[in-house]
């Protein structure tokens, strides 16, 4: 794989952004021509567009890089509930590719196209990916609670009105874990008499508690996702490693928690969230200390399951890649033969642009480039 790194990354970049461009056009068509008349049909069709787009990187991770998630899950819960009901996902925000592991797993459950998230408002203006999320009706927040609580209430009703099960991801820590942010989080916890977490930042409870009144009655469960990579792993879990065809080994423990377990009172719900993250911290600590999520965490052990890559993701990638490469080669060859140097170099420029966009996206996903919000705003963490 390493010898094909440059060529492979170019092919991935061209396929990803070309697919995204046409998905954007399809989404826009649905919003203009279908949604005003039949919202249910619009959202059903939207699933397939977003699924096709997300599949590009799922295919890269599984079929190109050979990465596979080891999932610890209750078989009975999986059979009875997973992807058969709306859910709110709570996940530790520690790694550069934690979102990609969620895509891989939800692809196996059958609801990848309806996996959504709370996200920073600025992200919806990012070309291709941000536009896909915007038109797929993600919940975009300003990080201004007075504004956000109104958006949360309105958008939750929209998201959970979809005809098929939707899983909505909430990173309650507010930003990705870094040593600097963790240091600020520990200091804040000590000052406020809150539990000190070893592997997480203090959860921001406002968004969670603001969501609860609307969630009750339309979203029956929380799906707690605990993701870990071995600290001595030879390959760093990053987007760059996946684009280079290097295999990573994610470990994930997922459990279903009925929403009815969360207290209705706002302060009690906030306290429940703090206690919940203490348990999540023990689960991750157990993994790093013993290699098992269960040995010292006090959580009931469940079996591990590895899902085979789905052929659909590979065929989706091959289909988009074939169309892209065929069109590009045809135009380059005909332009060269006809002496159309403007057209020829225009194609070269577009290829360079796509490659540059991919490099920028990879750079932006690095932990060192993550938001400083967590460190700067630690004094608001548990408000």
Description:
The chain has helices at 5-34, 39-64, 75-80, 98-109, 129-135, 145-159, 179-192, 205-215, 239-243, 266-290, 311-338, 341-365, 373-376; strands at residues 70-72, 87-91, 115-120, 139-141, 167-170, 221-228, 251-258, 304-306. With 383 residues, the chain is α/β, with parallel strands linked by helices. It has one domain (7-313, 363-369): Glycerol-3-phosphate (1)-acyltransferase (3-Layer(aba) Sandwich), CATH 3.40.1130. An eight-stranded mixed beta sheet has the order 4-3-5-2-6-7-1-8, sandwiched between helices. The protein is globular, with a radius of gyration of 22 Å. The model is unreliable at 373-383 (pLDDT under 50). InterPro entries: Acyltransf_C, Plipid/glycerol_acylTrfase. The chain crosses the membrane at residues 12-33, 45-65, 122-141, 314-333, 339-358.
Task: Name some characteristics of this structure.
383 residues; alpha/beta; Glycerol-3-phosphate (1)-acyltransferase; 8-stranded mixed sheet; disordered C terminus
Task: Tell me the layout of helices and strands.
Layout: H1 5-34, H2 39-64, E1 70-72, H3 75-80, E2 87-91, H4 98-109, E3 115-120, H5 129-135, E4 139-141, H6 145-159, E5 167-170, H7 179-192, H8 205-215, E6 221-228, H9 239-243, E7 251-258, H10 266-290, E8 304-306, H11 311-338, H12 341-365, H13 373-376
Parallel strand pairs: 1-7, 2-5, 2-6, 3-4, 3-5
Antiparallel strand pairs: 1-8, 6-7
Helix pairs in contact: 1-2, 1-5, 1-11, 1-12, 2-4, 2-11, 6-8, 8-10, 11-12
Family: Belongs to the 1-acyl-sn-glycerol-3-phosphate acyltransferase family.
Pfam family, one: Acyltransf_C
Keywords: Acyltransferase, Membrane, Transferase, Transmembrane, Transmembrane helix
